[in-house]
Amino acid sequence: MKVAIADDDPIVCSSLSTILTATGTADVIWTANDGQSALKCFQATGGRPDVLLLDVQMPGMDGLEAAERIIAVDPAARVLFLTTFADREYISRALALGAKGYVIKQDVASVVPALQAVMAGQTVLGAEAVANLSLGKQEEQTRKDPSKPVPRRFQTLTDREHEIVALVADGLDNQAIARRLYLSEGTVRNHISAILAKTNLANRTQLAVEWLSAQES
């Protein structure tokens, strides 16, 4: 795949380029150190990558504004945020803009699989991003009417399945969910497979994103 990187730290750009090239994951077609440069490179002939790795906070035009302008130019653009900031406001804004994912820099090992997932059409959230976004949704939900109807996508789920979806959205893995609900890991896996089939979602990341978005609406 072709990847571009926009980060205000040239060392980060260089390191990521080295990792992606050395692992045979991608060809890095350009790097930029601010949002304005990223937009300019993207609009240049041959400058549109398969995935754009984009930092949030950069001098001048930040990553969120750059993403908004880039997606306006090309609605099919795949923007994957890679940043040190796990602020839920940033995460919510990024997803609202149409970004394909939000990964925290500290988890460098997740960059390659995240890029591959985005290329496969998935939306990717790092564990810390999911946890922070979930916390914000839970706080908002406490102020909402508890009698609010269940969103259509989740209406066919059982009460137990609703519990499991909420825990997936909290960032818990199967083992942690099993401990919380006093179930076996195999039972949890079976429940999640059934939930994905009922909701027509591909994986637990999409499940978490859809659940959290539903709680917000």
From TrEMBL:
Domain Response regulatory: 2-120
Sites bearing 4-aspartylphosphate, chain numbering: 55
Cleavable signal peptide: none
Pfam families, A to Z: GerE (PF00196), Response_reg (PF00072)
Organism domain of life: Bacteria
SMART domains in the record: HTH_LUXR, REC
Residues covered by the HTH luxR-type domain: 150-215
Keyword annotations from UniProtKB, A to Z: DNA-binding, Phosphoprotein, Transcription, Transcription regulation
Protein name: Response regulator transcription factor
Biological source species: Bifidobacterium kimbladii
